[in-house]
Amino acid sequence: MKHAAAVACLLAGEGLAAQRATPSLLVLNKTSATLAIIEPASGKILATVPTGAGPHEVAGSDDGRVAFVTNYGNNTPGNTLSVIDLAARKEVRRVDLGDLRRPHGIVVTGGKVVFTAEANRAIARFKGKQREILIQSRDDFQATLADISWPI
C-alpha distances in angstroms, 48 versus 33, 37, 84, 98? Predict the structure, then answer.
């Protein structure tokens, strides 16, 4: 993982905490198209899970049991998301995004996965098998997603 172009996500959700004594650090390796699950205190790699080509960003589910990876692609634009079961430490589904290309930023909120599709200049979401474009622009724009919760 020395040459990994890494994106990391620390998960400490209740579901994940119940399955493991410590939180997990999720690190993507674009070159080998994998997700490493790491125990942060020791730095020990617990598992390496194959993803689609050019994994770019990772986000954990609200309950910490599942990770979602945007598969950006390499020379050919990617159009999939990998769904990783963190307890089983394997990809359980590869979501085909149809004509949405170069999935990039990603966030999970309220059980829905929201992501950018860079090539389409769009922000989209999916839940289950439904996919919906939320915003699409004809102008050149960059989008970053963040899950921001405000106290009430």
Answer: 10, 6, 11, 27
Q: Which helix (H) or strand (E) holds 16?
A: helix 14-19
Tokens (6 digits) for 46: 């617990």
> Mean pLDDT per segment of 10 residues, for the chain of length 152 residues?
46 42 83 95 95 96 91 95 94 91 90 87 74 55 44 36
Question: Which 8-state DSSP code applies to residue 65?
Answer: S
The predicted model scores a pTM of: 0.77
Element (H, E) at 15: helix 14-19
Where does 1-152 have alpha helices with state H? 14-19
Residues of 126-137 as b/e, b for ≥16 C-beta within 10 angstroms? beeeeeeeeeee
Distance, CA of 60 to CA of 36 (rounded, Å): 14
8-136 has which CATH code? 2.130.10.10
Domain ranges of the chain: 8-136
